[in-house]
């Protein structure tokens, strides 16, 4: 026992001597022109706090409030924001030992990777901590990182689905990136804090009419200041679309005929049928909850009426000239539209895209409010040329015969399907050459066509 205590004391003595050497400038990494008496030691501990889950949703999982920060990058800046030290990971910093720094004011910046413009399951955590390092002292600093980009989750009420089909599509943008969220999308969407956040919901009623609703959240200062957003979509019941004149009295109820059983006089012409009163589109109610660690802030409801598809951001994003529905307000005459996603990120179908081994999916979105009546694709992969009528079973069987050897299968929407449809061309990814094109021609029930040529360069 005495030997163990003696060994322990020796270790403490050696440790103290080494730290003393470092503090007096006899250790590693100190500039020669820095006086030893101006040196202090920074003992940094880094924590990252998870964003709070939305109560009562699938995000409410029993997991630790904090998670491992070994992969976080760390930068140390001086009082004039000049970089003093930089580490690719907190693990590398810990392996390097304590930080010896000249006395003064410092900012510790820690962050997790890159801050994407827009991405699914792409949280960005960041923290800035200011501290003072004193000469010949050990300063212990606890730096805490939190969610630093916008997390957006949507929920749709039962009343929404009483009015609309489940094949809705939400297009969200922040002026820098765009994400398309379908009804099957289970991942959370994350957006860089740009000061802009808006979305458009594309819907089809149970009767087959298509509508879109746009909502701009950028004007609310509370939404700008908080990053964890939970958006609930509800519907206000539709009412007859009849103009109201406050100066006119309410119409009187028609009187009952005096003798309802009296047969009609064949010499009296029948009165024309009165057309049914048109029903206006349902109004969407938008409720935003700002989810914090120990509380939730409820933003007053926003009531949004149907509008033309209108997503700001230019023609190179969904909502420009290629936005679903075009400029038509009547779904029965709306043009078909073609958009696309690579790894669930929207891209301009008119611009060549680069793909690699990391490309997992290429999905073409077909907007057909009147129904699909034709889907033809000319495929050019290197020297391979294919001309496919994919609503023809024999043509589909032919291409699936080629893909079967790679364990792949091409699935296409059926003739007559309406709304927002997906045409997944990911099964072709393993076949790609350096230059590849997919010329897609869709036709709707009105005979209208839309063409897009997808160019993929590997």
Structure, described:
The protein is mainly β and 458 residues long. The chain folds into 3 domains: 19-147, Immunoglobulin-like; 149-241 and 279-313; 335-458, Immunoglobulin-like. It has 5 helices and 27 strands. Strands 1, 2, 3, 4, 5, 6, 8 and 9 form an 8-stranded mixed sheet that branches. A hairpin with a 5-residue loop joins strand 14 (198-204) and strand 15 (210-216). The termini are far apart. Residues 1-35, 240-248, 274-278 and 308-329 have low confidence and may be disordered.
Distance between the termini: 68 Å
Strand residue content: 35-45%
Task: List the domain count as a whole number.
Answer: 3
Shape descriptor reads flat
Helix percentage range: 10-25%
Largest β sheet strand count, sense and barrel closure: 8 strands, mixed
If you compute it from the alpha carbons, what radius of gyration comes out, rounded to the nearest whole angstrom?
32 Å
Secondary structural class: mainly beta
Report mean pLDDT, rounded to a whole number: 79
CATH architecture of the largest domain: Sandwich
How many runs of DSSP E, i.e. beta strands? Answer: 27
């Amino acid at each position: 026992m005495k030997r163990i205590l003696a060994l322990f004391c020796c270790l403490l003595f050696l440790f103290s001597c080494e730290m003393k050497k470092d503090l007096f400038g006899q250790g590693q990494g100190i500039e020669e022109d820095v006086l030893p008496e101006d040196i202090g030691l920074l003992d940094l501990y880094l924590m990252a706090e998870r964003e709070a889950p939305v109560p009562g949703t699938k995000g409410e999982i029993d997991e630790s409030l904090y998670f491992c920060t070994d992969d976080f990058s760390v930068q140390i800046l001086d009082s004039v924001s000049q970089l003093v030290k930089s580490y690719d990971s907190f693990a590398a910093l810990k392996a390097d030992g304590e930080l010896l720094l000249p006395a003064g004011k410092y900012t510790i910046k820690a962050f997790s990777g890159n801050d994407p413009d827009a991405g699914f399951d792409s949280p960005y955590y960041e923290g800035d901590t200011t501290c003072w390092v004193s000469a010949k002292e050990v300063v212990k600093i606890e730096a805490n990182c939190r969610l630093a980009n916008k997390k957006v989750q949507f929920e749709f009420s039962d009343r929404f689905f009483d009015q609309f089909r489940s094949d809705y599509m939400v297009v969200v943008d922040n002026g820098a990136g765009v994400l398309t969220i379908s009804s099957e999308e289970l991942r959370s969407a994350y957006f860089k804090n740009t000061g802009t956040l808006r979305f458009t919901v594309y819907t089809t009623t149970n009767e087959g009419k298509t509508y879109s609703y746009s909502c701009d959240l950028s004007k609310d200062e509370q939404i700008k200041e908080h990053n964890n957003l939970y958006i609930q979509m509800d519907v206000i019941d539709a009412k007859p679309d009849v103009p109201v004149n406050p100066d006119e009295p309410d119409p009187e109820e028609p009187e009952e005929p005096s003798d309802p059983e009296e047969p009609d006089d064949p010499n009296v012409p029948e009165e024309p049928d009165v057309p049914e009163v048109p029903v206006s589109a349902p109004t969407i109610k938008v409720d935003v909850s700002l989810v914090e660690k120990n509380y939730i802030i409820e933003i007053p409801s926003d009531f949004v009426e149907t509008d033309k598809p209108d997503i700001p951001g230019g023609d190179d994003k969904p909502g420009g000239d290629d936005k679903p529905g075009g400029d038509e307000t009547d779904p029965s005459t709306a043009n078909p539209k073609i958009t696309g996603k690579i790894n669930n990120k929207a891209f301009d179908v008119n611009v060549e895209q680069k793909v690699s081994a990391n490309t997992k999916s290429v999905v073409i979105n077909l907007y057909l409010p009147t129904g699909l009546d034709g889907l033809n694709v000319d495929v050019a992969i290197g020297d391979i040329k294919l001309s496919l009528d994919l609503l023809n079973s024999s043509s589909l069987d032919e291409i699936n015969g080629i893909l079967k050897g790679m364990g792949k299968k091409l699935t296409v929407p059926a003739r007559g399907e309406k709304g927002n449809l997906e045409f997944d061309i990911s099964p072709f990814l393993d076949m790609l050459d350096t230059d590849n094109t997919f010329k897609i021609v869709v036709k709707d029930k009105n005979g209208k066509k839309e063409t897009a040529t997808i160019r993929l360069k590997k």
